[in-house]
Amino acid sequence: MSRALQRVSRWWLERNGFRSRIVHTSVGDVHALEARGDGTLPPVAVMHGLSSASSQFAAVLRGLKRSCRRVMAVDAPAHGFSPVPRTGPSYETLRNGWFEGLDRLIPVGDPAFVLGNSMGGFAALRYAATRPERVRGLILVSPGGAKMTAERFEELLDSFRLRSVDDALAFLGRLFSRPHPLRRWIAPFVLRELSKEELRILMDRMCVLELLAPDEIESIRHPVLFIWGDQDRILPRESRDFFLKHLPPHAQVVLPPHFGHSPQLEHPQELVELTTQFLSAAELRAPSTEPTPSVA
Q1: Beta carbons within 8 Å of 58's beta carbon, 6+ residues apart
Q2: Could you tell me if residue 53 is left (phi over 0), alpha (psi between -120 and 50 degrees) or otherwise beta?
């Protein structure tokens, strides 16, 4: 998303009750959005994917605001309106800046459900593992971070290294479940975004050893909603199978046949409905004590 479109999305959110603010962390400032909601469901924090930003969840954030007490999102360092960390982008600086930013927004006494897509799903899992007192549950939407070989991981990263407009068009073809009518207009912006030096450095510094191990998934005690669209062509199918194999028994699984990798862009209202239904059900039971039936 171009910076101009990000500004328009942020302006629209501000017109709908969201506050844009800067939060200080040990690796530098990060940008955050937050709003007092109109409903009674628990707070929700949203975590975006690689090269994405909180503003791409604008419709989801606005939809959740109608049902939840609080809604918030933090742009990871070097993403959206968050500047590049002082020591440069890396797994460590993204994790520290992102997590500390959420720490400032989520009080220990009022934990939030964390919704994460792609890299944001990976981060949400790690955040819940390191800050269990701040997390009430997880909504994982095509989460990244599945354990894989070094060769397969490099192939995945290389699919984000675009070199031409044609590469960007092919990437958009994988990102959306069906051809986007404005894909030829969007492609140059996608190429520019994924060609930024900070993202190139970040991908070059990513290591397969930082990926999730099976026991990290199996040991989740929080309520979990796992959503993976059947039209996801960004992450390999073996990533989905990794999660399905290792998710704890209480996890709820939804596999929408028409969802692609980023339903927040194509089906935001459906994603909001799935999330709020899960939040409502989770409020009626004690966390991690009663298994949730899986739904295909």
Answers
A1: 9, 12, 13
A2: beta
Residue written as token pair 């354990």: 147
CB 269 within 8 A of CB 243: no
pLDDT < 50: residue spans in the chain: 286-296
Q: Is the dihedral of CA 142, 131, 48, 150 positive or negative?
A: negative
**Separation CA 140–CA 143 (nearest Å):** 6
- Phi and psi at 73, nearest 5°, equal -155, 145
Look at residue 272 and give its three-state secondary structure: helix
pTM value?
0.94
Residue 5, C-beta contacts closer than 8 angstroms, at least 6 positions apart: 55, 189
**In the numeric block, which tokens belong to residue 98?**
């992102």
Q: Rounded to 10 degrees, what is the CA torsion of 263, 18, 41, 136?
A: 70
CB within 8 Å of 216: residues ≥ 6 apart? 125, 126, 129
Percent of the chain with pLDDT over 70: 96
